[in-house]
Design brief:
4 strands; two-stranded antiparallel ribbon; Nucleotidyltransferase, domain 5; two-stranded parallel sheet
Length: 153
């Protein structure tokens, strides 16, 4: 599992945060390792006290304690309950960035190295474009009643 935070304007992203292969990412691991130890402080360093926190409907993200944490610790949290249960990707990192380079990887270490290398050279224009697409993609998802919309927006 890999996570990152992005923003438009100025410095554009955090480092990539990896969860070790084989680690079971349950609610406690997600909160204690990824959110508390890594992501939330990096987001605050990047954006101060104003940011929107978005995640998907993964079980660790929906855990009651995770919801409580994010409701208290983030200024503008988009709860998974507001997203369609089987939504197409509405996360800018997923729809704009991770799909850019599709090549065969031999193992997880090679994939991790490739992601780090690509991320270090990623251009702000792609991040800004992905963030600009978020609202139109959300509207397209609503028009599709939560169904697939890639061909429509």
């Amino acid at each position: 599992m890999v996570s990152v935070a992005v923003r438009s304007l100025g410095h554009r992203f955090t480092n990539l945060f990896f969860i070790d292969q084989g680690t079971k990412v349950n609610g406690q691991c997600y909160r204690d390792v990824l959110l508390h130890q890594q992501l939330l402080s990096a987001i605050r360093d990047l954006s101060g006290d104003f940011f929107t926190f978005q995640q998907d409907n993964a079980p660790a993200h929906r855990a009651r304690e995770t919801m409580q944490l994010l409701t208290c610790e983030t200024p503008d949290f988009i709860a998974p309950a507001l997203w369609p249960a089987n939504s197409p990707d509405l996360n800018p990192v997923d729809y704009q960035m991770w799909g850019k380079h599709r090549s065969r990887m031999h193992d997880v270490d090679q994939l991790k190295s490739r992601l780090i290398r690509e991320w270090e050279h990623f251009h702000q224009v792609f991040i800004d474009g992905a963030i600009r697409q978020w609202r139109p993609r959300l509207r397209a998802c609503i028009r599709a009643h939560g169904g697939h919309f890639e061909h429509r927006h």
